[in-house]
Amino acid sequence: MPGENLSRDEARERAELLSVDGYEVVLDLRSAVDEAEPADGPRTFRSVTTVRFRAAAPGAASFADLIAPRVNSVTLNGRALDPAVVFDGARIALDGLASENVLVVDADCAYSRTGEGMHRFVDPEDGEVYLYTQYEPADARRVYANFEQPDLKAPYRFEVTAPEGWQVWSNGAEESREGGTRRFAETAPISTYITCVVAGPYHYVTDSYTRGDLTIPLGAICRKGLAKHFDADEVFLVTKQGFDLFHEIFDYPYPFGKYDQAFVPEYNLGAMENPGMVTFREEYIFRGKVTQASYERRANTILHEMAHMWFGDLVTMKWWDDLWLKESFADFMGSFALVEATRFDQAWVTFANSRKAWAYRADQLPSTHPVTADIRDLEDAKLNFDGITYAKGAAVLKQLVAYVGRDAFLEGARRYFKANAYGNTTLDDLLSVLAEVSGRDMAEWSRAWLQTAGVNALTPVVTCDAGGRVTELAVAQDGAELRPHRVAVGLYRLDPDGALVRYARAEADVAGARTVIGELTGQEKPALVLVNDEDLTYCKIRFDEGSLATLRWHLGSVTDPLSRALCWSALWNLTRDGLMPARDFVSLVLAHAGRETDVGVLQMLHAQALTAVSRYAAPAWREQGGKVLAACALQELRFAEPGSEHQLTWARFFAAGAATEGDFQLLLGLLEGSARIDGLEVDQELRWDFLLPLAAHGAIGEEVLAAELARDDTASGKRHQVRCLAARPSAAVKDQAWVSVVEADTLSNALVEATIAGMQQSSQRGLLAPYAGPYFAVIERIWADRSIQIGMDVVRGLYPSLQDSQETLDATDAWLDAHADAAPALRRLVLESRDDLARALRAQACDVAAG
Hints:
Helix content: 40-55%
Oligomer: single chain
Shape: globular
Number of strands: 28
Number of helices: 28
């Protein structure tokens, strides 16, 4: 990746010099279907870009961005420039600029296998070729020459020539078609990273949305092989519900014409908010039975991306420091819109239990950063699409709504859009309008919540008299930065029927190290005190001893789903922090998970329980812990309502934790049909879920997996097979997986991910031990030679976290000491992995002490 980076200072200087009037991008994609692979380099397509731009200082020099194997010609204001002189592989040097300039670049750009730039996918099911683009933060330069930074917005016209029989889409509506060439309408001014092209023999379904005089053409797109699984009507329903809500609360009509949504293969992200042409990972098209939690996640993503049409596309951050101005808002608005406009009216439960778990983890890493981050360059930007920018930022906005009020918050958004439409903004632009509408001191709020890092812990301190009445209830706050919190404190008691219900509540501002909640004085002694009831603020919840004792016996009796989810989240944080033994958390799951009604929370508990056993439990207890979890899963599977989503969830958990010969025989029987559990349909996706643990424990071999691929000869089936093959307990298998990811560069991004996931099995620590040393020897080379996406996947995925010992920490520290000058983004990835390992060792020590 040398030479491909761009610093904030360089971007600032270029923005001060240049303003862009428009792009005309002409792409010829017919080479995508050529049968023969080129012998002398990557497969390429022709890209011809005309950029019209102005320079504030005539005679000055600047540069355009392009990453391409070949540049055929460069013309600046009619003057031919020698590509061998002006192009260095990532930049085109431009000197002697005029006040008004025309740059024409004719290049051969490379198709991608990494999900960056113009990704090319060949469907193993029918041999069809599918293309799509993905650019954030700076990969549009892999497809056409440009000025790759968010504050040099411009209108775009795309012209695309494609193979016969293909469909093609871009941000604008198709204006004309002549043979295989499509010309698309000019866009409104947008940033480079949200331009888009999707092309191939895709399946396409249409609809429309109407509100008053506004009509928006809608489209939903997927590969032909997935058409039979595609529930486009459900996608359109959520889309229309989102448009209804956002038009009502934003009072600014959707500004980008049509609204297509494409579900594309081998996608690195959840989705991308390209205006008029949103792209999603195709795993959101469900090939088998899934729970309502999966439908909720997809609906959340649809609404998240739609919110970006205003927060991010219409009004865009000036530089990646203010990435939160789009991602935090979209993350918050996704859950907000689910609750306000769709059937998923319990989405705040999911937010509290799942999204915030991501934020809490990220905010305790050594790489934590303020919500408004210090982004020095593009590599920093790529890594800052993290739990701070998304989930913590969204949680902070939820706190802001409680602080200024819903009406003021939405009025601030409306004024912000109208004042900054098609422009670029910074933090101050938003804070000024929020201060104006709310009358609140936004500078102090911003300093505490947006400009400092770290998470606070809030703990109740309860004093009661001899008569069983509260004489004082205070909230203690700790953390490096003591922040103002708007919280609700709930008091719970056990009813005669055994339910744990709230009987008193107070909402208050908590600030400083200790705050007394006077409204709760005189209440009867609570069985449970829940700080941050209703999840108004962003904090880690702690419990007093009495509350913790209550939860050990009665957690499943908490009647309110959100309150129960908050308790589970708090208990998991105690486990991660080494304050509760992992086996205690497992015991809580064993005792109470069977009563969990929210299937999304249940799925999270299953994942956390598996992590507790494999990473946080004392090594001597792992085997026993795994067996009790598997036994619990099987019992709950048999007790679950036949055909229910809870039954499906317990079936997947049982497979993931299968630990004994009897477990493996049952899985084989369910696959072969010789065993049956009433109501459980073992569809193709569930078959692969069962096959993975069987492969990892040596219960099946390569021939069974080959037969399963023949049964499911699809792109999804291939990914599953690759994962299962790499999971087999063999030194030769692990070596082959290592070589295919580290020494070769032929796998696509999706197959790299599948290979790493299969290779890293927690039951195979001994087999993986030989790769701990080589890992540190190769990661700097990997970072230099591969794309940033593949580099991130390898550095994170192959870190020897399963070699959980002080020796691995020492080896990590030795690498960090010896590579002080390594790329900061690479060092960040290694530091984060080290921190996860150190946390696991602390948790293990806690569990050892408990044993």
